[in-house]
Amino acid sequence: MAGSNPNAKPMNLTLKVWRQKNRITKGGIVDYQVKDISPDMSFLEMLDVLNEDLLRQGQEPVAFDHDCREGICGSCNLFINGRAHGPEQGTTTCQLHMRKFSDGDTITIEPWRATAFPVNKDLSVDRSAFDRIIQAGGYVSINTGGTPDANEIPIPKDISDRAFEAATCIGCGACVASCKNASAMLFVSAKVSQLALLPQGHVERKTRVENMVAQMDLEGFGACTNIGSCAAECPVGISLENIAILNQEFLAAKATSNNLA
Amino acid sequence: MSWISKTFSSSIGRKIIMAITGLFLCSFLVVHLVGNLQLFKADNGVAFNAYSEFMGHNPIIRTLEIVLVLGFGFHIYEGLSLAIKNRAARGAQGYVSNHIEQNSSWHSRSMAMLGSIVLFFLIVHLYNFFGSLRFTDVPRDANGNEDAYALVLDAFRNPLYVALYVVAQFALLYHLLHGFSSAFQTLGLVHRKYTPAVKFIGYGFSIVVCAAFAAMPIYFYFFK
Ligand code: HEM
Ligand code: SF4
Ligand code: FES
Question: Is the minimum CB–CB distance between A223 and chain B shorter than 8 Å?
Answer without folding.
Answer: yes
